[in-house]
Design goal:
By secondary structure, this protein is α+β, with helices and mostly antiparallel strands. It is built from 10 helices and 4 strands; from the N terminus they run ααβααβααααβαβα. Strands 1-2-4-3 form a 4-stranded antiparallel sheet, sandwiched between helices. The longest helix has 25 residues. 29% of the residues are buried. The mean pLDDT is 93.
């Protein structure tokens, strides 16, 4: 099969004409909020918008190997605190606390029930495109990026996709004047045992915890102006 001949249909959509300055100002406003106001709650409508930003996020091969847990149960949040040293402020004060899950190797192996569901049911690819994916995706996973070498390499790859989802949610939140904080300060094994095995909030055979994030409204003034490396240190042009 000549994979060069495969064309995946696209769909025209209206191009947005938004003021880029507005989004840049929102990005400057955003910071890793450490103290949230527990009395200020994100409305259901606004949080649904954040979830829609997550749903529309890009992922490699369009496989969407992620799932979101929105932990609003206060008792469970309290139980999470001993295993989330970097997440305690978010667990106690944030309006919404999100755990981003990433699919494991079994699900992202081509031909798995999950992979087939994504390609056949969600994307509704025709047989020739499915066969194209079979070759390209398998070569990508086994030979090129080697994401299927182990459970660790698979989860590393799917976690990268989950981070894209989190970043898009945080950007949308900043645009809407909602604060957020990405959180990696937790013990994955203990948190998995608590949420997956004790509370059965996710199937540990299929998912691992990638990262967490808190969303709400700040109860503090940022301690300093946002500082970043200049572009001259971060970007190198190859012309």
């Amino acid at each position: 099969m000549n994979t060069e001949s495969i064309t995946i249909p696209t769909k025209d959509t209206p191009k947005p004409h938004n003021d880029k300055k507005v989004l840049l100002e929102a990005m400057k406003y955003r910071y890793a909020t450490k103290k949230f106001d527990p009395e200020k709650i994100i409305s259901d409508k606004d949080f649904e918008t954040l979830l829609e930003a997550a749903r529309l996020s890009p992922t490699s091969f369009g496989m969407e190997p992620w799932k979101i847990l929105v932990i609003q149960n206060r008792k469970i949040r309290e139980e999470m605190m001993p295993y989330g040293w970097g997440a305690r402020a978010g667990l106690t004060g944030a309006s919404h606390f999100v755990v981003f899950l990433a699919n494991k190797r079994e699900d992202i192996t081509f031909g798995s029930p999950y992979a087939d569901h994504m390609l056949k049911d969600i994307h509704q690819v025709p047989p020739e495109v499915y066969n194209f994916y079979s070759q390209v995706y398998t070569r990508f996973g086994k030979e090129e990026m080697k994401i299927l070498d182990s459970e660790r390499t698979a989860l590393d790859w799917t976690s990268k996709q989950a981070y894209i989802v989190m970043a898009n949610m945080m950007t949308m939140a900043a645009y809407m004047g909602i604060d957020s904080c990405p959180l990696e300060g937790f013990n994955p094994a203990d948190m998995t045992r608590l949420l997956g095995e004790e509370h059965h909030l996710f199937d540990t055979r299929h998912y691992g915890i990638a990262v967490m994030a808190a969303f709400g409204y700040r109860a503090e003034t940022p301690h300093r102006d946002k500082s970043r490396k200049p572009l001259s240190e971060s970007v190198e042009w190859v012309r």
